[in-house]
């Protein structure tokens, strides 16, 4: 049997080995030459606007567009059609994502409290003024990304939502009709077709046709990620980092090898830059899953099988651990985008409580990555490259901001006077202290 999984053992790995295992730096994802090329493209869009966007779409997507063809008209959105099965699936998925995000939004509300007699503090919650959503269209069609980004923005109450999507790779200039159907279902009518990195720059700077937005979100190729990183240098807020997909599974002697293999292939088939890691407490389980992977790979088209072998071999593989507690250490060190706990309860409860760093945690072997990607309602646009240790997936909260609100009565301010004056004097800001001294003396 040809092994699919690259094998490692956590207890025998050196500190440098563990660090290398977990490291997915921007330098690794975005080579210097790519960063330089994207920097030049972004600057071209900043200077030439629509013409630069059209040039990039012609050069990289093989589609010639005039500036007046960048925006997709309302009639094209209304005419877009999908099969009945896909339409029903979209309705079902959007319903789940909407309900999840409505629950998120309901917990983020204005609040205030009396922090001491006469002084109140609190927060006001408002949506960002505008958002740009990037939906990829290269290796595959991604209407799921459109609703995973669009529903949270709509539920958050963003006043202006612009969605950009590259034309389909067939050279026709059309965009995936399923993406347009999603836009119609969500009431998003500002939709553009354009090359990915150029569209990111257009959303950030604004062009003659595409008005600038305050925040840009959406996964994409390394070039799209590079464009988002570059736009941060120009003051546009983007999400860090939605790079090549990655997943991790925790398994033990209770794991069903066949279901585990099927689930590991979900994210593995995305591309040869994907990373998939199995963390297991038992060598026998690793062997059994490896055998099932070899069999399951035969059912995939060659391009997907090749991608899966890279994700599970060169890029990822299996890590043998001494215990489930050590498995949690591996998870937190790696901080995966997607995590599945393929073990039985009550072990899953303990693991969920222990784990701190993961974009999502899917509990049990009846919760595969594809269920979360498409329909469960949880966010599917998640931080990659270790950023799950410091950030979260895209939900309604992504498009909300909190403004602090405070008030103090004269008596409360008088009580706080000594604290304010002492700290102002210590930090060397006399006007800070004088505002109190001159007010009360």
Chart the SSEs and their pairings.
Elements: E1 7-9, H1 15-22, H2 26-29, H3 32-48, H4 50-61, H5 74-79, H6 84-106, E2 111-116, E3 119-127, E4 130-134, H7 143-156, E5 160-165, H8 177-186, E6 190-193, H9 196-205, E7 215-217, H10 222-233, E8 237-238, E9 246-251, H11 257-268, E10 275-280, H12 283-297, H13 302-314, E11 317-320, H14 324-334, E12 338-342, H15 347-354, E13 360-363, H16 369-374, E14 400-408, H17 410-427, H18 430-440
Parallel strand pairs: 1-11, 4-5, 4-7, 5-6, 7-8, 9-10, 9-12, 10-11, 12-13
Antiparallel strand pairs: 2-3, 3-14
Note down, in words, how this protein is organized.
The chain is α/β, with parallel strands linked by helices. The chain folds into 3 domains: 7-19 and 244-379, 3-Layer(aba) Sandwich (Rossmann fold); 49-238, Rossmann fold (3-Layer(aba) Sandwich); 416-440, no CATH class. Helix content is 48%, strand content 16%. It has 18 helices and 14 strands. It has helices at residues 15-22, 26-29, 32-48, 50-61, 74-79, 84-106, 143-156, 177-186, 196-205, 222-233, 257-268, 283-297, 302-314, 324-334, 347-354, 369-374, 410-427, 430-440, and strands spanning 7-9, 111-116, 119-127, 130-134, 160-165, 190-193, 215-217, 237-238, 246-251, 275-280, 317-320, 338-342, 360-363, 400-408. The chain has a 6-stranded parallel beta sheet, with helices on both faces. A 5-stranded parallel beta sheet has the order 6-5-4-7-8, with helices on both faces. Helix 17 (410-427) runs antiparallel to helix 18. It is globular. The N and C termini lie far apart (87 Å).
């Amino acid at each position: 049997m040809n092994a699919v999984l690259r094998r490692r053992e956590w207890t025998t790995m050196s500190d440098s080995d563990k660090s290398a295992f977990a490291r997915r730096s921007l330098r690794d994802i975005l080579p210097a030459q790519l960063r330089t090329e994207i920097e030049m493209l972004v600057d071209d869009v900043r200077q030439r606007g629509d013409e630069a966007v059209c040039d990039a779409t012609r050069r990289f997507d093989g589609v010639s567009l005039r500036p007046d063809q960048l925006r997709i008209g309302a009639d094209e959105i209304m005419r877009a059609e999908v099969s009945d099965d896909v339409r029903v699936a979209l309705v079902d998925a959007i319903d789940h994502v909407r309900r999840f995000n409505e629950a998120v939004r309901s917990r983020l509300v204005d609040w205030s409290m009396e922090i001491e007699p006469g002084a109140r503090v609190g927060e006001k919650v408002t949506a960002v003024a505008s958002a740009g959503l990037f939906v990829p269209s290269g290796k595959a069609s991604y209407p799921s990304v459109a609703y995973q980004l669009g529903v949270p923005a709509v539920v958050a109450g963003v006043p202006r939502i612009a969605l950009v999507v590259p034309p389909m790779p067939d050279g026709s200039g059309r965009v995936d009709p399923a993406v347009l159907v999603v836009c119609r279902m969500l009431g998003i009518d500002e939709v553009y077709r354009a090359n990915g990195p150029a569209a990111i720059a257009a959303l950030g700077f604004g062009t003659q046709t595409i008005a600038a937005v305050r925040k840009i979100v959406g996964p994409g190729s390394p070039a799209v990620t590079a464009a988002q990183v570059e736009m941060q240098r120009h003051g546009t807020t983007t999400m860090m980092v939605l790079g090549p997909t990655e997943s991790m599974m925790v398994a033990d002697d209770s794991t069903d090898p066949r279901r585990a293999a099927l689930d590991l292939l979900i994210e593995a088939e995305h591309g040869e830059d994907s990373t998939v890691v199995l963390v297991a407490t038992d060598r026998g389980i690793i062997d059994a899953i490896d055998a099932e992977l070899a069999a399951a790979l035969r059912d995939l088209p060659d391009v997907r099988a090749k991608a899966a072998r890279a994700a599970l071999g060169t890029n990822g593989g299996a890590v043998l651990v001494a215990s489930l507690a050590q498995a949690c250490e591996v998870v937190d060190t790696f901080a995966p985008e997607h995590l599945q706990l393929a073990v039985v309860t009550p072990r899953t409860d303990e693991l969920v409580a222990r784990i701190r760093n993961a974009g999502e945690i899917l509990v049990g072997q009846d919760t595969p990555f594809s269920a979360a990607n498409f329909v469960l309602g949880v966010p599917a646009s998640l931080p990659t490259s270790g950023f799950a240790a410091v950030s979260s997936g895209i939900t309604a909260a992504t498009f909300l901001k909190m403004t602090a609100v405070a008030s103090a009565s004269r008596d409360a301010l008088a009580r706080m006077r000594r604290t304010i004056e002492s700290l102002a004097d210590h930090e060397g800001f006399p006007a800070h202290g004088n505002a109190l001294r001159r007010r009360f003396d």
